[in-house]
Design goal:
alpha+beta, five-stranded mixed sheet, five-stranded antiparallel sheet, 24 helices, 24 strands, zinc, DNA ligase, DNA replication, DNA ligase (NAD+) activity
Length: about 700
């Protein structure tokens, strides 16, 4: 669209338009002014090398704006002036992708890439594969549709099939052209995938603006980009300085006149996107033959990732030849011709400033390290759990230490080690309290455990945490309640325990700031709706120690009413799937406490479901078979995999024992795998094995 051969011509036209008087602008020459403005947008937002000053661009823009204001019939949809949002978006409409946006299979080491290469060669029948390697941008995914060179739709990823139509907001991203000359390649309609980003500098400036306004800063550029895309005021989106990298063509429809010049390679498509004025990873991309060359390039690129102006979390490897891509095809979850290589955990150094001790719903006291703010993988980290007293001793942590931290898998921050060689004598020991930091009761460390506990079940911290757990998504799923409202209502005296949640009145809520008629109505309706949640959610919501979602289902399927559990002995409980000695002791202890029985009777009186849920076994060979998942699954979400097994009659366990039939192992499997290897009756299978089993 704009290359070295026409820069001089366009700069000459720029000078011409700068000198032109407004009265000489007509419907016959206005398209040339629009073309000049698109060229300077491209130089500024795509190439990052403007050829005129901002003021000079603004003056040209005002010439176009004045003409269109005087001649509204001559305004075109792809005019540079049409980026400006007109009013608020009430609701985002849903739009279907022309081709589903599938996830990519993930890899974390060279061995995974070698295995990927082996499969590609086997399926394609080729001895050597040419790959295209490009950065894996850490932003918000979008797809764009152009028809007859015009941008007609911008859509979020959504569920991969259908996303939100955010076209007005996409118009505000200056690196996305409203008009792109795809017709020169014979293309009538095209769907393009990309990632919307906020670069590091813009993110830092935006966060500083929030701080100056007394607002909390955002955690990372990805959240900033994703949140901005879904704003209902396009004019605000325009001020956020988002940019977009377009990296994949998913659909092409050509004109029927035989003029098609559609590229035959992925790298060719990236060159094409750049040629029509889009920001594609053309400069960062490499085409390489053989997986060894790919691995070498990835290692070199990872070493220099900090120098990039934007965040990336890995590299994407794609078979370059489009015909080979079509031959390889895809699964229901991911293409067989592409894989994402995730970079190693990001690390940084910081200083351990102090330790706070927090009390959870089971009374566990958890030390939380407060550290000097550190940027790790694009996220500002100021707090890190240090688990328990043993962990502190094992890591040899002291207040005042310089520490090495990392985000494992670019998600959970943790302390790698203390840099003890930097100590200067000013460091002090971390002293674990002997009394509860909330209620002052003496802490107890049960035999065989690493955790100190407050055993006062009326401890305010535990009461609040139990209510937070009870209303949470995986428990009673009371919409619009959440942690913040639990704490607010508790502080206001509106709730004091779990049953009191079902006694909240509109009058009580209306007295609180921020609770108008609609929010009060919605919350009360959500509380009422939660009474229909099945028994296993009620059991899980009670927060019985060691009773997770899986065990809660087991219990609900084994009783007529919840009160039956009060009459079962530890031995009877252990006869149930997934209930071992510790779990049985915890359940028995809970149901021998009269306060807990009183709470359940109050919940029953409030109308909650207390009847059991007999399991309907599917008529398949998996009826009665037990499953457990460990490690990171690449093709299925853990919850989806568990639901799939259950739909075929299987039962999910929460731990390794002789009752387990199948352990499904994903990446980075840990202690469960090691334990399972010692029990000969357990079948250890891969995620692919599991999927094949379900298909059969």
């Amino acid at each position: 669209m704009f290359d070295a051969t026409n820069v001089n011509d366009l700069m000459a036209k720029t000078a011409h338009w700068q000198a032109m008087q407004n009265q000489h602008i007509t419907e016959n020459n206005i398209d040339e002014l629009r073309h000049v403005l698109r060229f300077h947008e491209y130089r500024y937002y795509v190439v990052n090398n403007p050829l005129i000053a901002d003021y000079e661009y603004d003056m040209l823009y005002k010439k176009l704006e004045a003409f269109e204001k005087a001649n509204p019939l001559f305004i075109t949809s792809d005019s540079p002036t049409q980026r400006v949002g007109k009013g608020l978006i009430k609701n985002f409409a849903k739009a279907q992708h022309l081709v589903p946006m599938l996830s990519l299979d993930n890899s974390y080491n060279a061995a995974d890439l070698i295995d990927f290469d082996r499969k590609v060669k086997e399926l394609s029948g080729k001895d050597v594969i040419e790959y295209c390697v490009e950065p894996k941008f850490d932003g918000a995914s979008i797809s764009l549709v152009y028809e007859n060179n015009q941008l007609v739709r911008g859509i979020t990823r959504g569920d991969g099939e259908v996303g939100d139509d955010i076209t007005p907001n996409v118009h505000q991203i200056k690196s996305i052209p409203l008009h792109a000359n795809f017709s020169q390649f014979g293309i009538e309609q095209i769907e393009i995938r990309g990632e919307v980003l906020m670069n590091k500098n813009n993110f830092a400036q935006y966060n500083q603006t929030l701080i100056d306004e007394g607002l909390p800063p955002l955690a990372n550029p990805r959240n900033a980009a994703a949140g901005t895309l879904r704003m209902k005021d396009p004019s605000i989106v325009s001020k956020r300085n988002l940019e977009a990298f377009l990296y994949h063509v998913s659909f092409v429809s050509t004109y029927k006149d035989g003029s098609s010049q559609v590229p035959s390679t992925h790298s060719g498509f990236l060159q094409m996107l750049w040629a029509v004025g889009m920001k594609s990873p053309k400069n960062e991309m490499r085409t390489l033959k053989g997986i060894d060359a790919v691995i070498n390039y990835i290692n070199d690129f990872e070493a220099g990732r900090d120098a990039l102006p934007y965040e990336i979390d890995g590299m994407v490897i794609k078979v370059n030849d489009i015909a080979q891509q079509d031959q390889l095809g895809m699964t229901s979850h991911h293409p067989r011709w592409a894989i994402a290589y995730k970079f190693k955990a990001r690390q940084a150094t910081s200083k351990l400033l102090g330790v706070e001790f927090q009390v959870g719903r089971t009374g566990a006291v958890t030390p939380v390290a407060k550290i000097a703010a550190a940027q790790v993988g694009g996220v500002t980290v100021t707090s890190i759990s240090i688990h328990n007293d043993d962990y502190i001793k094992e890591k040899d942590l002291k207040i005042g230490d310089t520490i090495l931290i990392e985000r494992s898998g670019d998600v959970i921050p943790q302390i790698v080690k203390s840099l003890t060689e930097l100590r200067d004598g000013s460091q002090t020991d971390i002293v674990f309290p002997q009394q509860c930091p909330v209620c002052n009761d003496v802490l107890v460390r049960p035999e065989g455990e690493a955790v100190w506990r407050c055993v006062n079940i009326n401890c305010e911290a535990q009461v609040v945490e139990r209510m937070i757990h009870f209303v949470s998504k995986d428990a009673m799923d009371i919409k619009s309640f959440g942690e913040a409202n639990v704490r607010k209502f508790f502080a206001a005296g509106i709730i004091k325990d779990v049953p009191s949640i079902y006694k909240i009145t509109a009058t009580q809520l209306q007295q609180l700031e921020g609770f108008g008629e609609k929010s009060v109505t919605n919350l009360l309706a959500a509380i009422e709706a939660s009474k229909q949640q099945p028994l296993h959610r009620v059991i899980y919501g009670l927060g019985i120690r060691y009773v997770g979602e899986t065990t809660a289902k087991t219990l609900a399927q084994s009783i007529d009413t919840i009160f039956d559990l009060a009459s079962k002995s530890k031995e009877e409980l252990q006869q149930m799937d997934d209930v071992g000695v510790k779990v049985a002791e915890s359940i028995a202890s809970f149901f021998t406490n009269q306060d807990n029985i009183d709470m359940l009777q109050a919940l029953s009186a409030a109308g909650l479901q207390m009847k059991g849920q007999p399991k309907e076994l599917a008529s398949t060979g998996l009826a009665g078979q037990t499953f457990l998942f460990t490690g990171t699954l690449n093709k299925l979400k853990r919850s989806d995999a568990e639901a799939l097994a259950e739909s075929h009659g299987g039962t999910i366990l929460s731990g390794v024992s002789s009752k387990l039939n199948y352990l499904v192992v994903g990446a980075d499997a840990g202690s469960k795998l090691e334990k399972a290897k010692k029990i000969a009756t357990i079948n250890i299978i891969s995620e692919d094995d599991f999927i094949n089993m379900m298909n059969q």
